Amino acid sequence: MNKLKKELLNDKNTIKFLEQIAGPIAIDVVKIFKKEALSPEMISKKLDEKITNVRATLNSLHYRGIACYKKTKTNNNLYEFLWEIKFKKIIENIHIQEIKKYKKIEMDINSKSTHDYFVCPKKCIEVPFEIAAAYNFKCPNCDSSLEMVDIKKRLALQKRKLKTTKENIEKLEILLEKIKDDTKGYICE
Ligand SMILES: [Zn+2]
Cα angle vertex 62, ends 104, 100, to 5°? Predict the structure, then answer.
């Protein structure tokens, strides 16, 4: 595995993303691919994981176009499925996710800059002043007293988040240019 792939798979965003879409062993499954294609049986043996877990993980990755397979004949004339990982697709998926996140933070910043907001300390609701007043400043869900959001602090925090997200998007775009998947003939979503 080359340096770029290693870097990608050690990144905490990648680890979190793979776990979200394909479960707890997804990162281990992806990491086990070096140069050659692998069957679920080989992965199961190498990781000492149940074959059913390996198959479920591969299928979830396949759904996102990250794990791809081909059917081949073995020496004893049986069919087996060999799998490959599309590393570029991992980055593409995370890239889309980060852009969505960026837009969401941007919208949040734009919508809240001029209003006072109230929030339930247990995070049930977050509402503007007028609605909080209509609730008598009590959470309609859990009856806790609503607390005023410090807009300045909140905005500063969101702007920091926006900046780190933007940096991350740029980093991913550089990776996208550099990384190559040279596996051919596999079936992907
Ligand atoms: Zn509440």
Answer: 5
* Helices and strands in the chain, H and E counts: 8, 5
What is the C-alpha to C-alpha distance for residues 175 and 136, in angstroms, rounded to an integer? 51
- Which domains does the chain show, CATH number per domain? 3-86 (1.10.10.10), 91-176 (no CATH)
- Digit-coded pLDDT (tens) for 26-39: 999 999 998 889 99
Cα(169) to ligand 1 centroid in Å equals 34
d(CA 170, CA 122): 35
Model confidence over 70-93: pLDDT tens digits? 998 888 888 889 999 999 999 999
Count of positions (residues) in the chain: 189
CA of 105 to the centre of ligand 1 (A): 23
**123 alpha carbon to ligand 1 midpoint, in Å?**
6
Angle at 13 between CA 159 and CA 178, to 5 degrees: 100
